[in-house]
Structures are given as C-alpha cells and as structure tokens.
Amino acid sequence: MAESFFLPFNYVDHLTSPGLGTSAGPVKLNQYLCKDRGNGGNDSATSFFKNFRWIKDKDGLTLNQRVGGRAIDLALKGQGNDKTFVQIWNFMLKNKDLLDKYKVEVCGRANKDGSKDVHQKGKIKQIYFDKMSDQAALQAMVQDRFFGMDCIGFIANFLIYCGEWDKYYGVSPKRYPDHVAKINIDDINEVRPLDFMVWNGHVAIVDWVWDKIDDNSVRIDMCQSSSGGPQCNEYVTLKQTNGKGIKGGREFTILGGTPHPPVRGHFTIWRREGFFY
C-alpha cells in the first residue's frame, strides 16, 4: 500500500483518449461488458473467444498460449487488463486470415428473459476487416460488445495501473469493505481522492474533491465503468444522508454530473489504508 502517482481519470484517458495503442493505431476501450446477464451479458465475447483462443497461428501457437488462459478468461467476462486487450488485438491484426475460420454472433445486451439478442452472424473478417480499416474494425468490435470492462474490472485494473496491486484480484463490490478498502468514511468532509464508492452491486472511485456546497454536500469528480464504458463523471454533487448501508457505513447519494453517472441510489464510502494521491 503506497502513494499513487495517478488518479483514476488518468486511467480513463489511457483506455479511451485516444485509446490503447495497437499496431493499427489507438482503439478506445469505451464499452461496458459484464458476464452477468442482468447487466447485459457477454454473448458477443463468448462467441468470439470460445473458438478463436484455440486456433493456431503460423508458428503453431494459439492466442491462449500467446496471452495466457487466465488473462483471456478475465477479458471474456469484462475484467481484462488493458495490456491483454492490446495483445489480443495485435494477434488478430497479425493473423487476419484466421478470422475467417469460424462464424461469430454479434449480440446486443442480453434480453430481459436472459436470452441472446443476436443482431447478425458471420465471419469476423467479412463483417469488419473487409469493410473498413483495421483500426475501425477493432473499434467496431468494441462497440459490438466483443471487448469491454465492467465496474470490478475497471477498479481492479486501475489498481494495477497505478502499482497498488501486482495482479488481478477478483472481489465483488459488497466485499470491498472486507478485502480492498476497510476504513469507513462517515463524514462527507473527510472524503478525498481514491476513496471507493461501494453499492451492493457496483463500485466506483472518487477522482477529485472540488469544493463544499453546504454542510451535507460536496462537489466531486468520480470514475467508473458502467453504461458507456470507462468514464469520468465531472462535477457530481455528493450528498451525505442519515441512512446506514453495507457494514453499517453511512450512506451517501449523488446528483448531477457530466456525463450523468449511470448508477444512482445509495452507497457507502471506504478507504484503503495507506493508499493516497
């Protein structure tokens, strides 16, 4: 646990502005992806990785061998590392002939009944790379939900990016107070950058604290991955309430923001000991 020389918005910019550096140019990882079907599912990603990870290149090695099975498993469920995505994309660009070996399903978010929302079926090279530049093809695949990050993936990989974690640790949001950030923040005047905003099923992080609005409200920037993918929500009003939430922590709520934070409702705030900007 140590000082961070990066804020969360630095990681958002790394992912999206201009994007991750591939051999075809920068590609923005600006998509939310979660294996939980209630949060949209990962049907496009599943249709891609289930076959492509095992196809051998001219050297007889698979993507699974080149990148690593665990790294691909994490990418499949929306928790992949930025370096993993670059390795996957560069492997695709180097082996475009392999992209016509099988068909994939281009899917939207899972339907409310849990079924697939299949928009089209076809071979990746024919759908994307034969119709547009390599860079545009990869970006289109991001938009079509083959690649993306969920909230847990974003926070975990930010912690790796700034050197706080040495590798990925999978922790559900409601377990953050037990395993990631154990210090409860009970007073809005004590909130500071790198504090974790924890809902029962979502996690975000305070990027900056601007000013006090009144005795119960401050203006902050926050970062997260939710609808719209990794993002920084600026000038959000953070309000203290009298409610109690996870592990008895004081509940807070948010108003406003640009862009509008997709997840609302009440949450608690927690701090990781020794982790500061």
The best one-word shape is: elongated
Q: Over the alpha carbons, how many angstroms does the gyration radius reach?
A: 20 Å
Strand content range: 25-35%
Distance between the termini: 12 Å
Write the SSE topology.
Elements: H1 8-16, E1 20-22, E2 25-27, H2 43-52, H3 63-67, H4 69-76, H5 82-94, E3 103-107, E4 118-123, H6 124-129, H7 134-143, H8 151-161, H9 176-179, E5 183-184, E6 196-198, E7 203-214, E8 217-226, E9 229-244, E10 250-258, E11 268-271
Antiparallel strand pairs: 1-2, 3-4, 5-11, 6-7, 6-11, 7-8, 8-9, 9-10
Question: Which descriptors apply to this entry?
Answer:
277 residues, alpha+beta, 2 domains, 11 strands
Write up this protein:
With 277 residues, the chain is of the alpha+beta class. It has 2 domains: 33-143, no CATH class; 166-271, no CATH class. The protein is 27% helix and 26% strand. The protein contains 9 helices and 11 strands. The protein has helices at residues 8-16, 43-52, 63-67, 69-76, 82-94, 124-129, 134-143, 151-161, 176-179; strands spanning 20-22, 25-27, 103-107, 118-123, 183-184, 196-198, 203-214, 217-226, 229-244, 250-258, 268-271. Strands 5-11-6-7-8-9-10 form a 7-stranded antiparallel β-sheet. The radius of gyration is 20 Å and the shape is elongated. The mean pLDDT is 97.
